[in-house]
Design brief:
By secondary structure, the protein is mainly β. It is about 0% helix and about 50% strand. A hairpin with a 2-residue loop joins strand 1 and strand 2.
């Protein structure tokens, strides 16, 4: 497996929706905000690997 790049498209309550970048047809998926870095907001770019996420920019 390899890391993937995501962008936060929406935040609803305690969950964020991540869209895989570079994949037009992929549906956003839900991730608990507790698993994301503290400064995560809509539009934040993330790199994720096996449930660990880091802000990239």
């Amino acid at each position: 497996m390899e890391p993937h790049d995501y962008i936060v498209t929406d935040i609803q309550g305690d969950y964020a929706y991540l869209q895989l970048t570079g994949s037009d047809g992929a549906e956003p998926f839900q991730v608990a905000l507790a698993l994301l870095p503290p400064s995560t907001d809509i539009g934040t770019k993330l790199t994720g690997f096996m449930g660990c996420f880091e802000i990239t920019e």
